[in-house]
Amino acid sequence: MLAVAVFNMRGEPSGTMEIDPAVLGGRVRPKLIKQAVVAFLDHQRRRSARTKGRSDVKGSTRKLYRQKGTGNARAGMIRTPVRRGGGRTFAKRLPPAIKAFPKRMRRLARDSAILARIQANDVVIVDGLECPQIKTKTMAAMLSALPGGRVGCILAMHERDPNVYLSTRNVPNTDVRLVEELSAYEVLRRKRLVFTKPAFERLAHGVATPPLTDASAD
What we know:
Elements: E1 2-7, E2 13-19, H1 30-43, H2 103-119, E3 123-126, H3 136-145, E4 153-157, H4 162-168, E5 174-178, H5 184-189, E6 192-196, H6 197-204
Parallel strand pairs: 1-3, 3-6, 4-5, 4-6
Antiparallel strand pairs: 1-2
Helix pairs in contact: 1-2, 3-4
């Protein structure tokens, strides 16, 4: 069992919570994590680069003049790349399809990233997180009081709370996500991973991550 420290909103320790590594896949899989990060970043590309080739520009396909007897160099249709207004020789096309990354692999990669964070002591739990009103000062003070100070973190919630989201959107290097929406890239992007107590309980009991079999992912 792995122990994770629990703190209140004032940064005072209030115990620990345990999680079975088997719930998170049992071991860290670096190759799978890298694959997940590469796929995540690849999916963020806009894929809008495109130029027109000779088949895309307007113009007749008729040969401009006969092949011989005119004294001119041989020429084909007007859309040829060597003529002004013709298509580009090596036109930019849409990139290949995005990298496939099945849901089961995404979950296992996320769990491996969380397990790596726990083993590195970069995970803390906040008990009694409350934000009755939208106030950045409250959330900034809480994050500063936690171990490590305000070095940037991702806050995993058990349910949506508009006040928490709006209160942290101006805190530098801080993101708020539901525990079910976490990805391997987001877990590793920030220096700390902060769970609310109910969110960590969902993770520890396998509610946020249904049991997965290790389908040759390494």
